[in-house]
Each structure stands twice: as C-alpha cells, then as structure tokens.
Design goal:
- By secondary structure, the protein is α/β, with parallel strands linked by helices.
- It has two domains: 8-148, Rossmann fold (3-Layer(aba) Sandwich), CATH 3.40.50; 151-289, Rossmann fold (3-Layer(aba) Sandwich), CATH 3.40.50.
- It contains eight helices and 14 strands.
- The strands form three sheets. A seven-stranded mixed beta sheet has the order 10-9-8-11-12-13-14, with helices on both faces.
- The protein starts with 8 loop residues before the first strand and ends in an 11-residue tail after the last helix.
Length: 313
C-alpha cells in the first residue's frame, strides 16, 4: 500500500495572522487553531488547540519590532517541539534584526547570528524567509534555510507597466548587486546612489552615479524603514531629469515619519509586499502579496520537491 504524506499543520503568529490566512488558503487548507493567553503585565502564552504530534508544522510570523513578535515565534516553536511535532519550519517573511549582521565597530553584538541560534534552540528545524538584508545570514544557521527572492513577485508587475527607457537604481552601494540582477532580467541600465550618513537613519550627503535624464527609474531595495533614503533619491533623480521614479522594496517597515515622507516625495509609487502589515493606507503605496510564493514553497518543502524555479535572482 503506497504511503501518503499527511497534511501539515499551518499556524500563524498574531502579527502575521492576515498573511497567514492568505498563505493557508493558497496552500489549500485552513489555518490551525492557536490560542494566546495574556497576562496583565504583557506576558503571553500560546497554546495549540489541536494535536501536532508527528506532524510537519509551519509557523508563520515576521519578526519586525516590537520584540514581542520575535518572542511569539520563539514560544510557538518551543510549544510545537514540546508537543512532539516531527518537523518545525519557521516561515519568516521578514527576518528581523538582520541589519546587525556584522561587527561594524567595537563592543557591539552580531544580532542576526544571535537570533539564528535562538530560533534553532527554540525548535526550528528549517527556516523559510524572503530577501534577507544580507545573504550571509543564511550561514548563521546550522539548519536548512530557504532564502526566497521577491523578484518573482515584483518582476511580473514591472513588466506589466511596459515602461520604455527603463533604468534600475540602487539607493546605496550595498544594494548594487540586487539592482544589477534586476537590470539583467529587464535588459535595462543601472545607476547607483552614493550616500554618507551622520548616524543611523540620517543621511548627510547623497550623489548619483549614472545618468537618469529622460528615463523611467525603478529604485530597488530590500526594506524601507524611515523612507529617508528612498525619498531623497527619488527627489534627486527627478531634479536630474528623470521622467518618473518608482521604488520596489520587499519589507515595508515604515517607521517614524515614513508615510509623510512618501506622500510629500516625488515618488510615483512605492511597491511593497505584505511581509509586514501596513500601519496605514496610502495612495502611493501598492501592496503585492507574497502568500502564493510562500504557499508554493511550503508545498514543495512538504513533498520534498525542488524549489529552484522560485529563484529568479
């Protein structure tokens, strides 16, 4: 009698419940039942309200601030481990704390490495994530990491715009590799912004390397936090003669005055995924869902089939 692979169990942390429901629906099943008990001081405890013994468990949750989001993921991983789940996959559309991927000055932590070790200690046997801030973070794990690229979501949308005289831009030197990958696929030119910072999230000076006059420009980045870099770059490019400036960023952190900056900038639109839920709506922000991408990869992982076709970059 042939062996049939039992259906996995899919759960979501509270901060990613909306995306979790989309992923589960695209996967073809209901989101699992998990209950959170909360104490008056802010402490909380998750409880799976169904058996996960011997099952493959997917736990969906982005770990953007506050740190409660990371703590939810850790507690749910530990709960699944103690409930005798067979495989426990942390599905993290946005891997938080990723900007701390190295020691850039003395006496600071490598936060991303620490988070990787904590996730494994809590019970994660596999990680599925998207557009890490730095590729080397995969090496911080001793467990398999499926690092997906949002290019599989953004590129079809960009092609649908049918923009002529297209130029791909990187808002900083660190994102040049990503920009070149997009330009290779789109057959476009590339420009790069060179910026100097006084401190974190504060830009002192920005210069443009390349020509944008008479071009439709698409800025490419992995995340947008305060939106200072993107909006400053967009304004600079319009001053240099660009016909339009769009930005595609995978993770919409959008903290501080980000929404106000975007509204007052010369950006035509900001295109993001729903890896992080938006705090407010904006006519300039277009959201493309990553649910189908994650559901497809989860299905392939569950059935032990290749996910190579999901990598355009």
């Amino acid at each position: 009698m042939p062996y049939s692979v039992p259906d996995p169990k899919i759960f979501a942390c509270t901060q990613s419940e909306k995306l979790g429901r989309k992923i589960a629906k695209a996967f073809g099943q209901e989101l699992g039942n998990v209950k959170f008990s909360r104490y008056s001081d802010g402490e909380f405890q998750p409880s799976f309200e169904e058996s996960v013994r011997g099952a493959r468990v997917f736990i969906i949750g982005s770990t953007h601030p506050s740190s409660d989001n990371l703590m939810e993921m850790l507690l749910m991983l530990d709960a699944a481990k103690r409930a005798s789940a067979r495989h426990i996959t942390a599905v993290m559309p946005y891997f938080g704390w990723a900007r701390q991927d190295r020691k850039d000055k003395p006496r600071v932590p490598i936060g991303a490495k620490m988070i990787a070790k904590i996730l494994e200690a809590a019970g994660a046997t596999r990680i599925i994530t998207m557009d890490l801030h730095a590729d080397q973070i995969q090496g911080f794990f001793e467990r398999p990491v499926d690092h997906l690229f949002a290019s599989t979501i953004f590129l079809p949308y960009l092609e649908s715009l049918k923009l002529e005289n297209l130029t791909v831009a990187s808002p900083d030197m660190g994102g040049s590799k990503r920009a070149y990958a997009y330009s290779k696929f789109l057959g476009s030119e590339v420009v790069i912004c060179y910026k100097q910072r006084k401190q974190a999230n504060v830009i002192d000076h920005m210069e443009l390397i390349g020509e944008v006059k008479g071009r439709h420009v698409v800025l490419v980045d992995d995340m947008v936090d305060t939106a200072g870099t993107l909006t400053k770059a967009a304004d600079l490019m319009m001053e240099r003669g660009a016909l339009s400036v769009r930005a595609i960023t995978t993770h919409a952190i959008l903290s501080g005055n980000a929404y106000e900056r975007i509204e007052n900038s010369k950006l035509t639109e900001l295109i993001v995924t729903d890896s992080i839920p938006l705090k407010q709506e904006s006519e300039k922000i277009k959201v493309l869902t990553c649910a189908n991408l994650f559901a497809d990869v989860m299905h392939r992982v569950h059935h032990n089939t290749s996910i190579a076709s999901k990598f355009l970059m």
